[in-house]
Amino acid sequence: MVHELSFDLANDIALALAGGTAFAADLRVNACDFGPLAELHHAGIVLGRHSWLDVGRHVELMRAMTVGKKWFSASGMQGFVTMSEILAQYSDWTDFAMRGKKAATAAGFAPDMPGQLFGAIGELRGNIEEHSENAGSGYIAYDATSGHFEFVVADSGIGVLKSLRTHPHYAYVKDAGTALNLALTEGVSRHYDEKDRGKGFRPIFIGLANASEHVRFCSGDHTRELKRTHERRVTAETRQKAVLPGFFCSVRCAT
Fold first, then answer.
1. What SS3 state is found at 19?
2. What are the structural domains of the chain?
3. What is the pLDDT of residue 86?
4. Is the pLDDT of residue 192 over 50?
């Protein structure tokens, strides 16, 4: 039986591999969506070593992410860049954003939406620079298909819990789930003096409110997911998961 790679299945796979479970003989997985595949990559799983996983059209993108090299597909519908590239040469960010906006337009998004997408990506990029304490470990990737645009922004820095605890008001926080919930609360920041500083992750989701189907924030051993139903209602859930380093955000948007 062939399974489609979902976030839940990716989490189960990460937990199994971390525990030394061998299941190659009876598992076949196809990766259609980019987000779950990127999460496996961020968990440190070398995807090319597992015969049970078919990464499909993502093979070149995943290869670029593995070697950490700036890359765009020939069609321009997929792209990847590291934060170290951006920090060394800011024009790499400009190039990446321009290509990504063209990809979103080609995928069928309304004229104002590509700018909003990359406004959100830029906010997440800034969060890595300001809060991760290991900005060079960060990376950004996107995948555009007809009617959909997925992006991932991640790093292997100190993570949301440790970052938030540097603020004296949040020194009491003990787990990554609570830290993620707080980070998605209006006005929460790690900075004691919050004037003109970051206001957490919630404004990012609000900025994509009309397009986002699934927003997933991961840090440490927790994830916070926001999903939009067919009735346009947003459901939110925080739960434990396989441990991930630093911070990982995956967003899937639809036209």
1. coil
2. 67-254 (3.30.565.10)
3. 97
4. no
Beta strand pairing call for 53-54 and 28-30 = parallel
- Report pTM: 0.92
Structure confidence at residue 191 (pLDDT): 47
Amino acid (one-letter) located at 235: T
SS3 readout for the chain? CEEECCHHHHHHHHHHHHCCCCCHHHCEEECCCHHHHHHHHHCCCCHHHCCCEECHHHHHHHHHHHHCCCEECCCCCEEEEEHHHHHHCCHHHHHHHHHHHHHHHHCCCCCCHHHHHHHHHHHHHHHHHHHCCCHHHCEEEEEEECCEEEEEEEECCCHHHHHHCCCHHHCCCCCHHHHHHHHCCCCCCCCCCCCCCCCCCHHHHHHCCCCEEEEEEEEEEEEEEEEECCCCCEEEEEEEEEEEEEEEEEEEEEC
Q: Are strands 148-155 and 234-254 parallel, antiparallel or unpaired?
A: antiparallel
**What are the residues facing 237 on neighbouring strands?**
225
The secondary element (H helix, E strand) that includes residue 60 is helix 59-67
The closest of 253, 251, 163 to 200, measured between CA atoms, is 163
pLDDT at 17: 86
Mean pLDDT of 182-199: 57
- Reduced to 3 states, what is the DSSP secondary structure of residue 31? coil
- Cβ proximity of 122 and 138 under 8 Å: no
Total count of residues recorded for the chain: 255
Alpha carbon distance 150, 161 (integer Å): 25
